[in-house]
Write a structure and sequence with these properties.
about 25% strand, alpha/beta, about 240 residues
Length: about 240
């Protein structure tokens, strides 16, 4: 689905990613883990056109994304959900849903899609007229996911969706990500600080350290690796 080759990227003169190559496969959860400051978020932002690409390529289904603006990448079916500021806090949940479908001219179609996502995320109807900023962190994540689904993307990229959430709520959020893959056939790229939980639901994993890939392969293999898991992820094997 997404193919990255020899990517070098960063911000201005600040070089963050070094010769990163990876594949995000169709209808799978690809997990990116690593220590703080390793470039995980920068990788997602690079795919979404938010960094400076020094060299390398990023393509989706054979179409080059490198050099495109973020709104053009979004039109090609990529949704990016940052950890924070992923909803319009001063708008109600209903207004957020309407904003998510602003590019769809047929308002009846927007309403139809809202009904669809409401079945997966009942919180949409429960808090229909509440300001999104008054919701809990987990509830806002659910609203953000629903907003992305309104646009029916091919790929959804999550940047630490469980950050600062209680363990029970974090488990629910990750459960919804699994549901997106299993029920909707969604392709997921997941950056997650809670490495163990992320690797437990992933189909393929990458370990990023100081902007360089240190591991590529099966998530269970990384979880049980005697050195990498303990040294870089703080996971005892």
């Amino acid at each position: 689905m997404i193919r990255i080759r020899n990517l070098n990227a960063g911000y201005g003169r600040l070089h963050i990613l070094f010769d990163v190559s990876m594949d995000v496969r169709d209808r799978e959860i690809t997990v990116i883990v690593g220590p703080n400051g390793s470039g995980k978020s920068t990788l997602l932002k690079s795919i979404f056109g938010l960094t400076k690409i020094y060299s390398g390529s990023i393509d989706m289904d054979g179409v080059e994304l490198t050099g495109l603006m973020s709104h053009e990448i979004a039109k090609r079916g990529v949704a990016y959900l940052p950890q924070v500021d992923n909803v319009f806090a001063n708008l109600t949940v209903r207004e957020n849903m309407m904003m998510a479908g602003y590019t769809i001219r047929d308002k009846a179609e927007v309403e139809s899609r809202v009904r669809e996502v409401s079945e997966m995320f009942p919180i949409i109807r429960k808090y229909w007229e509440r300001k999104a900023g008054t919701l809990s962190g987990g509830e806002r994540q659910m609203v953000a996911m629903a907003m992305a689904l309104i646009r029916r993307p091919k790929v959804m990229m999550f940047d630490e969706p469980t950050g600062n959430l209680a363990p029970k709520i974090a488990k629910e959020v990750l459960g919804k990500i699994v549901e997106l893959r299993d029920s909707l056939g969604m392709t997921i790229l997941l950056v997650e600080q809670n490495a163990r939980r992320a690797l437990e639901i992933g189909d393929k994993s990458y370990l990023l350290v100081s902007g360089r890939l240190m591991f590529e392969g099966d998530p269970q293999e990384l979880l049980s690796h005697p050195e990498l898991a303990k040294l870089y992820l703080g996971i005892g094997t």
